Amino acid sequence: MEENTKLSKRKAYLFPIIIMIVMGVIIFLPAGSFWFWQAWIWWLGLSVLMIFTTAFFLKKSPELLARRMKFNEKEITRKPPAILNLYFLGFIIPGFDFRFHWSSVPLWIIITSNAIVFLGYIFIILVFKENSFASTVIQVEQKQQVITTGPYAIVRHPMYLGMLLMSLFSPLALGSYWAIIPSLMIIPSLILRIKSEEEVLLKSLPGYNDYCLKTCYRLIPSIW
Fold it and tell me: Engineered SS bond to 31: which of 8, 98, 120, 155, CB 3.0-4.6 Å?
């Protein structure tokens, strides 16, 4: 039993470490330099939050971490067009922007954008704390219940709201105006994802229809 626990811990920490390494390569390789100070603020901040999240939920809700490591969806859902995945360019372009000096983003915008990115991640942590069924795949599990408290009292898909804030403000946090353009593709991508998810939830999760009537907005309060 003890060995399985150790293995579980290693697997839990391996996931964020791999993400941190991949993020570092994606950002610093195009920049061709480790003097990309904007990237250090962004990368170190998110790395600390990821490790904290793993340590916290490994103790409080390890089943959540297990769900966050799933990628094969059981439900047949509509996939967003592949072109919308180009929003990932919003994390690659800043490195080239730094190397070739395309943008000159003021320091106050960089700092403010980093703060919004980190707050977006903290908001997602609050979502995880409220809902241990928050998976990376669209599914409804046994004993799953509708969550109506915390961030879910604001919008029906608060995790995606946090992701939206992080994606839209990361380019500015990394000192690039040009990276904002592909990052905007996260908006239609999330809209399609949410519509597919709600089709499954309305069909399979008891009480979700009543929750939709009570909490009107899906992603952004007073907008949609």
Answer: 98
